[in-house]
Amino acid sequence: MKIDKNSYGTLALVYLGSAAVLIPVWIFSNNPWVLWPVTIVLGWFCIWQTRFFRVPVRRPVGSSRVVSSVADGEVVIVQKMYEKEFLKRDCIMVSVYMNFFDVHSNFWPVTGEVTYYKYHPGKHLLAFKPKASEDNEHTCTAIRTPEGKDVFFKQLAGTFARRIVCYAKPGLPTVAGEQCGIIKFGSRIDIYLPLDATIRVKVGDYTRACETVIAEI
Question: 97 and 139: one domain?
Fold first, then answer.
C-alpha cells in the first residue's frame, strides 16, 4: 500500500500520539475493561488514518476527452454555474463531497496542460454547503486539453481540513488518473465543465477517483 508522500509527518504524529497514550495505560493499569477498549480504539484510529492517507491503485478511464473523478465521494451538485475567476463563462459544475472515510488523494481529471493555478486562503465552513465554494480555503486549477477544451476544478477545504496539497503549476503536463494532490479531512471538489459536455453522473451517485466518468467533452 502506498502512502501519500505529503502525509508521512501526519501519520507519524498519529502513531506517536497513540503510543504515548497506550504505553502508560498498559504499564500502569491492570484493568482489562480499560486496557482493551483503549487498545482497540487507538488501533482502529491508526488503521483508519493509514487508509485515509493512502494513494489507491486504480485503473484510470480518463483521457483528453473523458473527464474522470478527481476524488472519491458523493455527487452533491450538478448545475449550471458561472465560473468567474479564470474561465469567465457559464459552465456545468459537478461537486463531489468527501467524508471522513473516503480516500482524500486527488487525481488529474483529464490529460492536457495546466494553464492556471491559484491558492485562496479562507474559512472552514462545512464543505457540502453552497457558500463553501467561494468562502472556504481552496485551490483553483485549469487544464486545457489538446483539443482546446478547458476543465477547471477547485479543491475545497472543509470544517476540519487544514491543509490542501496541489501539484499544479502553469505549463505542467497532466495525465488523467495520476495523483495531483491531497486534502486533509472532510472536503469537496468542484469541477467546471463546458456547457456542451455530456454529464455522466447525477446527484447522489458515488464516484471513485480515476475510475468514474464524470463527463465526456
Answer: yes
